[in-house]
Each structure stands twice: as C-alpha cells, then as structure tokens.
Design a protein that fits this description.
One of its GO terms (molecular function) is DNA binding. Belongs to the GreA/GreB family. GreB subfamily. This is Transcription elongation factor GreB. By secondary structure, the protein is of the alpha/beta class. It has 2 domains: about 70 residues, Helix Hairpins; about 80 residues, Transcription elongation factor, GreA/GreB, C-terminal domain (Chitinase A, domain 3). The protein is about 40% helix and about 25% strand. Helix 1 packs antiparallel against helix 2. The radius of gyration is 22 Å and the shape is elongated.
C-alpha cells in the first residue's frame, strides 16, 4: 500500500467483527458440511460438497482481504482532532453547491464508506477537495457529472 489506510475506531471494530464472525462461526460450519459431504462418496455430483468448497474459498479470500486491511489500518479517532476549525479525517461537513443545495458528508476510511448514509471515503475526489478547508472556503471538485464548486457551510467533529 502506498498510502495509509485511515479508519475510525467504529470502522475498525466492524472489520474485526466481520473477521471474527467468518473465522469463528461461518467457516467452521462450512468445514463440517464439506467433511460430511466428502464422506458421502462421489464428490463430482455432490452439491453440498461442491457448494461448500466454493463457499470455503470465498470465505478464505474475504478473510485474507480483511486481514490485510486490518494490518494496514491506522485507527484515527476523530474526537481527538487537534484542529476542529478545518476539515480533516472524521469531520462531518455541510457543503452547498452553486444552486444552494446543501449536503452533509462525513469523511471516513475508504473501507467504511457508504454513500447512501453520507459517509464518504477519505480518498474520494470530494473528500480530497475538502481536506483542510475552513468554513466559508470554496472548493472545486471534478466529478463524473462534471466540475462543481462547493462552499463549506459547517464543520463538526464527534464529542470526546
């Protein structure tokens, strides 16, 4: 990885919970099913065996990915942000476009981004444009729909 994988404590906990659930619960169940199905004889037409092996590969691939992301993670608590007057990691920002449409975004780690919930990944174009901005600053963002200009209306951080 060429850049740090910033993540909030809640985002890291979600990755950890998914890893623990896959490794501690789901994977052992699938291993039991596969070993039971393997004992039933012909494996070439055994749906439980074939599906179980496929699901086991999917789980192992996901566990590997989660493990890499957690090792590369740099947990940053936005509640401890030293400069709350500017937009940094974990900030909740209200922006307005040229048509005075307001949007509220929270800058989070790329692994916990969820556009529908207003959580934007730290390396998304709009997040990169907003980094370091103060209230009243204008920022130009190139989006797939074209170039837009946004004004920062409000900045908040979680309470300590």
């Amino acid at each position: 990885m060429d850049r740090p994988n910033y993540i909030t404590p809640a985002g890291y906990a979600a990755l950890r919970a998914e890893y623990d659930a896959l490794f501690g619960t789901e994977r052992p169940k699938i291993v039991d099913v596969v070993s039971w199905a393997a004992g039933n004889g012909d494996r070439s037409e055994n749906g439980d065996y074939l599906y179980g092996r496929k699901r086991l590969r999917e789980i192992d691939r996901r566990l590997g990915w989660l493990s890499k992301r957690m090792k590369a993670a740099k947990v940053v608590d936005p509640a401890r942000a030293p400069d709350r007057s500017r937009v940094w990691f974990g900030a909740t920002v209200t922006i307005a476009d040229e048509d005075d449409n307001h949007r509220t975004l929270t800058l989070v780690g790329d692994d916990e981004a969820e556009a529908g919930a207003g959580k934007v990944g730290w390396n998304a174009p709009i997040a990169r444009a907003l980094r370091g901005a103060a209230i009243g600053d204008l920022r130009r963002v190139t989006l797939p729909a074209g170039e837009r200009e946004y004004e920062v209306m409000a900045i908040t951080y979680p309470a300590n």
